[in-house]
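Q: Convert this sequence to structure tokens.
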Amino acid sequence: MIETIRQGLKQDGFDVAVSKICQWFDIPRRTAYYRPVKSARKVQERFAEPIKKMILEEPSFGYRTVAALLDFKKNTVQRIFQLKGWQVKKRPIGFRPRVKALPSVATAPDQRWATDLCRIWAGRDGWAVLALVIDRHTRELLGWHLSRSGKPKTAESALEQALITRYGSLGHVTAPFLLRCDNGLVFTSRNYTALVRSYGLQQEFITPYCPQQNGMVERVIRRLPEVVSDFDIG
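A:
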């Protein structure tokens, strides 16, 4: 900027020194001569290699999750993400297997199960969270779990109880079938989805704001008593 002003004055017939112009604008003279020189930013491989390995295995992990799992500083991981171009700006939409817009009828047992969570009043214990798993063909309640919190462990316990009820033990099912649920954070959590896959089941999610697609278990929940007196969940 200083040199532009000086050249403009020179074209008008006024040869003014740079120091004089700096004095007029009350800025240091070195500002007119200083040119910042930045070296290219370098990425240390001892940080980049484990980060790259982790995001290749789990592409959905953000820099905070990666930093926590690798015990790195999150600012360091974020900077490496930016320099390497690994930052996920926007996650893809529609990756969840949705319910097809066709009549959903289970013609035999163990073709499709349904699960859901609800809150019930447990008397002196206050509000509790109940997880249910039913067979959509036989309408049999296979598993349930009552807890004080609505964490994924509650839904996981109900699913494992359903597998024990139907097969007598935990393990891979004989033939993969569908487990229908809504889009709640519990059923989309990393732990719950990993547990479902480990037992050989396939999750399918209802369309958002369409609870009628999971109407089987929704009707069971509505029929639950609103008050369970003196029920001890401890």
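The first strand starts at residue 112 and ends at 121.
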